[in-house]
Amino acid sequence: MSRRSGILEFAVLGLLRESPMHGYELRKRLNTSLGVFRAFSYGTLYPCLKTLVANGWLIEEPGSTTEDALAAPLTGRRAKIVYRLTAEGKEHFEELLSQTGPDAYEDEHFAARFAFFGRTPQDVRMRVLEGRRSRLEERLEKMRASLARTRERLDDYTLELQRHGMESVEREVRWLNELIESERAGRDLKGSASGEPDLPDTTHGTPGGLPRSGDTSRPDTPDDTAT
């Protein structure tokens, strides 16, 4: 399994741990609540869902809403498939939550892990946060050393880009320090009015808020009859 596939499976299990969803709803939540999945297609999501079903972690059920029941005969399409987490799937997700290996510190995986910190034990949260901080401090040290070696050969714009990258990493390290201090003090992280914490935008290495599930941007055309 590729690292990208593993992150997607983890995120899908986590979202379905909250409630059953059909494919389009899942994709929208992945796009809006977890910024790391802003750009991916149904061609990526549905093979992942099929794998999780084959492993016994999900089951497929026909859509049961009135809207689904009416839409099928009118459009000639099958009702939407709803995906539900099984008991084995819940157990597997809890096992994944407890893992604190190096992958948990990487950019994309950390953002997904952080999104489910509300369900993660405090000691695991601490290990992930401290591991992420150590990883970024190592990255920052390498960036500084590289800049010191190449400064004289860089033009002003490239030099400014290098500085911007360093400042981005420094900001996330400061953010992590604040989170770790809060965890050690036993304080809960308070997010926005929706009750969700801001997620780190690891696309550019800087912490910041990502769109919520209530994002009002125009949704993609759904296709939830894929099997």
TrEMBL record:
Record Pfam families: PadR (PF03551)
Coiled coil segments of this chain: 126-167
InterPro entries: Metal_resp_DNA-bind_regulator, Tscrpt_reg_PadR_N, WH-like_DNA-bd_sf, WH_DNA-bd_sf
Organism classification: Bacteria, Bacillati, Actinomycetota, Actinomycetes, Kitasatosporales
Renumbered residue ranges of the record's region Disordered: 184-227
Gene3D superfamilies linked: Winged helix-like DNA-binding domain superfamily/Winged helix DNA-binding domain
Transcription regulator PadR N-terminal domain ranges (all copies): 12-95
Name of the protein described by the UniProt record: Helix-turn-helix transcriptional regulator
Domain of life: Bacteria
Keywords (A to Z) from UniProt: Coiled coil
